[in-house]
Amino acid sequence: MIEAIFQYEFLQNAFLTGMIIGVIAPLLGAFIVVRRLSLIADALSHVTLSGIAASLLLSKTVVMFNGLNPLWLGMTFSVIGSLFIERLRAVYKHYQELAIPIILSGGIGIGVIFISLADGFNTDLFSYLFGSVSAVSRSDLWLILVIAIIVIALVVLLYKELFLLSFDEEYGKASGLSTKALHLIFMVMVALVIAASMRIVGILLVSSLMTLPVAAAMRIARGFKQTILFSILFGELAVVVGLFSAFYLDLAPGGTIVMSSILILLVAIAFKKWQSIRK
């Protein structure tokens, strides 16, 4: 595959995109897991599916939208979904977790309607559902790179605030943090990363890349910063192994990346257990 990467542009696009996603997905995933909001990624991925289906429908029925990159509408829907989640969390103050299944259900419902209007599934939609090595274009790569730069810059600039928000939101409010604004910024970042990741991992599996490397890292890391570093390391490893496996076995990369993540998690659990037995 290494020789093929230098020969074929679509493999370069897929490999570079995968490496970028292997950083930003676990990076935000660490904050998501600590805040016990793992299902948010699932909810927003289903909203993104609605945007993708809507884009494919528009490109099929409206001439002026022919050739529209579905990633744009997928990102738009994902960001709008994140805003709705924050709004519903404010409405259901004592039952904030209700916001997630509400948006998830809405995303699935709207997506099914658009898919039905577009006369069912097609090859393009399947590539978004489960990921595709050949579907990543150079324009997708540049867009994902811009998203990655924005996300990493915001996490670096707002690290202390996001850390405090994740571990002790009440103290953050008492110390004068604008928690609503931080929640909003964080949710928009998650929405953008999910929309960016779907090309490689697939809409239905993208949440796995945000949570499984973090779950593995938490077994062996000491402290939150170490958890982030190990999460990114495991995310990169899962992407590389998954892409190579997908290339040689002719499989959807989403499945191979997720199974690589699960294998890493099992190794981390076994290593931790071995350490405890030694002690």
TrEMBL record:
It comes from the Bacteria. Its main location: membrane. It is a multi-pass membrane protein. Gene3D superfamilies: ABC transporter involved in vitamin B12 uptake, BtuC (1.10.3470.10). The chain crosses the membrane at residues 14-34, 70-86, 98-121, 141-159, 180-197, 228-248, 254-271. The keyword Transport applies. Coiled coil: none annotated. It is found in: Cell membrane; Membrane. Belongs to the ABC-3 integral membrane protein family. This is Metal ABC transporter permease. It comes from Jeotgalibacillus marinus.
